[in-house]
């Protein structure tokens, strides 16, 4: 199974039409990856689908970086009993 | 005699969604007034008590003077308990007299006339138990009084009710200001401009086919045309509007573009061009520029409306527009299909195509699909801002009610969001 980080980068690349290999943990979704507000909603939706979790919208949308998303999703997966590769 | 209005039946309440999600059915409007005001006037009640779904009780208590979900209101007075959906105009049961329960053909309570001494013998542990014991212990008589069954019936009856309400109000003439040049077509007896209302130059008021009532503080800007029957509520503004026949608007609305045979609750805006026809619009709604709804199908067949997101209900009418819940917001260029359901607290960002006919409450329609968007707390923040701009207040009770609505509407939203996800993933 791919790691949380790999899966987050794959989803991010799909939604924002980027190359997953070029996405770094410190990248800011808006400033570095060019995510618009509508795309951030799509990102949250696709992360939920990818990991089979439900995220609080306010908390999820306050995450700014790819690394932040990895940490946040890891935490939610643990809370919701979803198995992941860290 | 105390009037007791009851609105507790979930099935019948659902027929009035999304408008009844945030209010009892009797706070819906038709003509000049709410159904509650019409019933109170009809039965000449001394005071009134209300029994509403628990999740809205605190919020509703802040809006009315009578007791809300207070069981002690059932003792100490003669009572006239009434189903909140009864049509006042055709209701002819005397509210005073011997105790009896009027039931419809399905055995549901329409009214219960209960003398003070009989009320004391009934089960007062809760309103549902009280009604059940009244039915069991008091004489039952058949009652064929008609009830409102769906929201669109109010829209379709609005013209007639406007005319009747104008006659009942017994007012005509100009007590406000009309600036020249302008024109009143038809008899001036069919027009009433209330004190403080102001009609700017270049306005045509056409009362040839029905009366026009412009209430206190309303302002009609140049190049507006108002066709009767019509009611413009207090402190509303018409901005060069083509206000066709059969509209009830306001209070405190901003209306432009073309509006026909529609009911618009207070504090809602349709500031710009775009057509709204045979629609029922809740409170604190904002319709962006060029938002347009269809109210007639190309094949002239009857319009169906989906109230649960699954099954269409044939309205039996060829003219039905949109049902738009409180706090809904549409973007510029939104196109609403015939008989659309726009959920309360929903946000629509138009795609240029007609929308799906069912948008669940609290959903964000973005890029052609229903999403969870930025979530409900962002919607509450927007609602708080919108209300404060017009002197309203977003209270804790209000938020608690909307939390209840969020739960009630979750199943339909979940289905629509899942469908949206599939569409997103297949792109």
Rg of chain A, alpha carbons: 12 Å
* Helix run count of chain A: 4
CATH H-level homologous superfamily name of chain A: ACP-like
Principal-axis shape of chain B equals globular
Count of domains of chain A: 1
Structural class of chain A: mainly alpha
What number of structural domains do the residues of chain B give?
Answer: 2
Strand content of chain A: under 5%
CATH level-1 class of the largest domain in chain B: Mainly Beta
Task: Give the uncertain stretches of chain B in residue-range form.
Answer: none
Q: What is the helix/strand order of chain A?
A: HHHH
* CATH-defined fold name of chain A: Non-ribosomal Peptide Synthetase Peptidyl Carrier Protein, Chain A
CATH homologous superfamily of the largest domain in chain B, by name?
Answer: Hexapeptide repeat proteins
Instruction: Report the uncertain regions of chain A.
Output: none
Distance between the termini of chain B: 64 Å
Rg on CA atoms of chain B, Å: 22 Å
In the CATH hierarchy, the architecture of chain A is Orthogonal Bundle
Report the mean per-residue pLDDT of chain B as an integer.
96
Main beta-sheet strand count, sense and barrel state of chain A: none
Could you characterize the architecture of this molecule?
The complex is a heterodimer of chains A (86) and B (427). Chain A has 86 residues and is mostly helical. Chain A has a single domain (4-15, 29-79), classed as ACP-like (Non-ribosomal Peptide Synthetase Peptidyl Carrier Protein, Chain A, Orthogonal Bundle), CATH 1.10.1200.10. Chain A is built from four helices and no strands. Chain A has helices spanning 4-16, 37-51, 57-61, 66-79. The longest helix of chain A has 15 residues, at 37-51. Chain A is globular and about 30 Å long. The mean pLDDT of chain A is 94. Chain B has 427 residues and is an alpha/beta fold. Chain B has two domains: 2-148, Spore Coat Polysaccharide Biosynthesis Protein SpsA, Chain A, CATH 3.90.550.30; 152-425, Hexapeptide repeat proteins (UDP N-Acetylglucosamine Acyltransferase, domain 1), CATH 2.160.10. The radius of gyration of chain B is 22 Å and the shape is globular. The relative contact order of chain B is 0.10. The model of chain B has no long low-confidence stretch (mean pLDDT 96). The longest helix of chain B has 19 residues, at 151-169. In chain B, the strands form seven sheets. Chain B has a ten-stranded parallel β-sheet. In chain B, strands 11, 12, 14, 15, 17, 18, 20, 22, 24 and 25 form a ten-stranded parallel β-sheet that branches. In chain B, strands 5-4-1-6-8-7-9 form a seven-stranded mixed β-sheet, sandwiched between helices. Chain B has nine helices and 38 strands. In chain B, helix 3 runs antiparallel to helix 8. Chains A and B meet through helix 2 and helix 3 of A and helix 7 and helix 9 of B.
């Amino acid at each position: 199974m791919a790691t949380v980080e790999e899966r987050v980068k794959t989803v991010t690349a799909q939604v924002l039409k980027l190359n997953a290999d070029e996405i770094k943990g410190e990248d800011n979704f808006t400033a570095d990856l060019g995510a618009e507000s509508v795309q951030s909603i799509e990102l949250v939706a696709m992360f939920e689908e990818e990991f089979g979790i439900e995220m609080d919208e306010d908390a999820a949308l306050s995450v700014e970086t790819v690394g932040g998303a990895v940490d946040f999703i890891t935490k939610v997966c643990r809370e919701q009993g979803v198995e992941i590769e860290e | 005699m105390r009037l007791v209005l009851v609105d507790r039946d979930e099935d019948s309440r659902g027929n009035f969604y999304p408008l009844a999600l945030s209010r009892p059915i009797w706070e819906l409007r038709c003509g000049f007034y709410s159904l509650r005001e019409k019933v109170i006037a009809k039965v000449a009640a001394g005071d009134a008590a209300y029994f509403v779904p628990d999740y809205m009780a605190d919020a509703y208590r802040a809006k009315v003077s009578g007791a809300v979900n207070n069981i002690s209101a059932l003792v100490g007075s003669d009572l006239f308990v009434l189903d909140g959906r009864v049509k006042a105009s055709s209701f002819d049961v005397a509210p005073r007299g011997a105790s009896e329960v009027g039931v419809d053909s399905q055995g549901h309570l329409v009214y219960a006339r209960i003398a003070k001494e009989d009320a004391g013998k009934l089960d007062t542990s809760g309103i549902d138990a009280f009604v059940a014991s009244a039915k069991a212990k008091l004489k039952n008589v058949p009652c064929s009084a008609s009830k409102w069954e769906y929201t669109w019936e109010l829209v379709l009856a609005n013209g007639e009710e406007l005319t009747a309400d104008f006659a009942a109000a017994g007012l005509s003439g100009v007590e406000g200001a009309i600036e020249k040049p302008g024109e009143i077509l038809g008899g001036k007896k069919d027009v009433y401009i209330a004190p403080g209302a102001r009609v700017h130059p270049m306005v045509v008021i056409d009362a040839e086919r029905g009366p026009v009532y412009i209430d206190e503080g309303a302002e009609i800007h140049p190049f507006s045309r108002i066709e009767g029957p019509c009611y413009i509520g207090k402190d509303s503004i018409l901005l060069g509007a083509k206000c066709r026949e059969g509209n009830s608007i306001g209070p405190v609305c901003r209306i432009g573009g073309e509006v026909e045979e529609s009911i618009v609750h207070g504090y809602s805006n349709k500031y710009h061009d775009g057509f709204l026809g045979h629609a029922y619009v809740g409170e604190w709604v904002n319709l962006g520029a060029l938002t347009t709804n269809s109210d007639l199908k190309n094949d002239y067949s009857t319009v169906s409306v989906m109230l649960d997101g699954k099954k269409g209900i044939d309205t039996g009418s060829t003219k039905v527009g949109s049902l738009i819940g409180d706090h809904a917001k549409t973007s510029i260029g939104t196109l609403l299909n015939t008989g659309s359901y726009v959920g309360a607290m929903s946000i629509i960002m138009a795609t240029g195509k007609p929308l799906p006919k069912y948008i669940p409450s609290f959903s964000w329609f973005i890029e052609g699909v229903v999403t969870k968007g930025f979530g409900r707390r962002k919607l509450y923040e927007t609602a708080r801002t919108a209300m404060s701009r017009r002197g309203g207040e977003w209270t804790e009770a209000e938020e608690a009610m909307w939390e209840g609505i969020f739960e009630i509407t979750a199943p339909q939203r979940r289905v629509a969001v899942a469908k949206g996800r599939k569409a997103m993933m297949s792109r």
